[in-house]
Structures are given as C-alpha cells and as structure tokens.
Amino acid sequence: MVELSKNYGVFSFLIFLLLSLASQLSLARPSKELKPCKHIVLHMHDVIFNGNNSVNATGEAVTSLVGLGHFFFGQVFILDNPMTKDQNLLTPPAVRAQGFYFHYMKTGPCAGMAFTLVFNSTESKGTIDVMGSNYFPAKTRYLSGVGGTGDFFMARGILEIETDGIVPFE
After folding, report:
1. What is the pTM of this model?
2. How many other CB atoms are there within 10 angstroms of residue 147's CB atom?
C-alpha cells in the first residue's frame, strides 16, 4: 500500500510536468509566422471639447470636477483620438486611440489610462490594449501594452510617451 502512494505522487508530478510542457508548446507559434514589430512612432492628438470646438474635439470630460485638490481630480475623460505618423493633426490617422482616462492624484497631474489602439489599414489590422499610470510632469512616461488582436495577436510591450505640447483650454 505504501508503494502505491509513492508511485501515485510520482505519477501526479509527471502529469503536472507534461501538462506544463504541453501548455508552453501550444502557446508557441512557428518562428516563420513571427514578425515582431519592435518600434512604431505615432503622434496622438487629444483635443478636449471646450464647448466651442465640436468640429475638432476628440475627447470630452464625462464627469464634473469633484472639488478635492487640483489637477482635474476625479474627472473622467472619454477619448477617440486620431494617431498620425507625423505631428500634423490634419494628416489622415494611421491608428485611433479609443478609451478613457481619469485623474486620480490630488497633489499632481496624473491620470490612469485604459484605451485600445485600433489599426484598420492596408498595413495592419487589429488592436493593442494599453493601460497604466500617466504622470504628466515626467518627460518620459511608460504605459503597458497588455494584449492584442488580429495582426497584434497576444501583443505585449511598453509604450513610451512624451508630450510635444499642450494648448490650454480657452
């Protein structure tokens, strides 16, 4: 009887090992299919609706200020921003960033962001999901690419963000 329980433990371990290896192998795709994109440079144009710019606006506050602290604390913004390959807002978008961000720091300008990069062109089709914390005063910030679809199936990586310029509300 003791001999059987020892074998059962070894047998369970082997099954666990085989299942672990099988799951690793099933996620791996043949190397010929993998064509990773290591670097894309895009420019996001976030034009917040101010009551007068409905033609050019790409995002809007959907909540009011809550009155705690400064820096838009508690405010939520919805976005559908064009992203271009150059800095010109009038260039046809290569990608759209669709999602939301919310200001959650009472003592500084910081937003939690969650949006999807939507690619729909002859070059690429699919999405990349992005989320993270964006502390605006930092010269360079990083958000996480946490998944994707289509040409970006199971994408993951880091998005580096730098602000080119800010035009205040009028």
Report:
1. 0.73
2. 16
